[in-house]
Specification:
The chain has three helices and four strands; from the N terminus they run ββαββαα. With about 130 residues, the protein is α+β, with helices and mostly antiparallel strands.
Length: about 130
């Protein structure tokens, strides 16, 4: 029987401002942390832990979208894990008015944009691919 687990990863984000001339050394770094929650299934808690460990490397990324010149995101490790099915009546929670709270904590410095239905990722259509 598969059980539903929730893992909370500690994610570190480092925004870097680089010099404009070679060797482009880092002039300033701002580091932030947040929790990322993921739900998944496994047959027992030991396999759930192994599966969560396997997710860590895939949670790293880097881009140039942050406030600095470069943003590095990496998973520091597992903050906590829960057997959701043992804590709640999963079917009842998923069917409730507000669904299942997975406890995502993301510190926000400003109000994020409120999107219309068609702007939501769930309803976006990629060119050549219908959803």
């Amino acid at each position: 029987m598969m059980r539903v687990y929730c893992v909370y990863f500690v994610i570190r984000i480092e925004d870097r401002w680089l010099a404009k001339q070679p060797p482009f050394e880092t002039l300033r770094t701002v580091t932030r942390y947040f929790l990322k929650a993921s739900l998944f299934v496994a047959s027992d808690r030991d396999l759930a832990y192994e599966k969560a460990l396997g997710m860590i490397d895939g949670l790293s990324d880097a881009d140039h979208d942050g406030p600095g010149d470069r943003m590095d995101m990496s998973c520091v490790g597992i903050h906590d894990m829960e057997d959701i099915a043992a804590l709640v009546d999963l079917q009842s929670e998923l069917s409730s008015t507000y669904g299942l709270d997975v406890g995502v904590a993301w510190p926000l410095g400003e109000m994020p944009p409120i999107k219309s239905r068609d702007e939501l990722e769930l309803f976006r259509t990629l060119p050549g691919i219908g959803r």
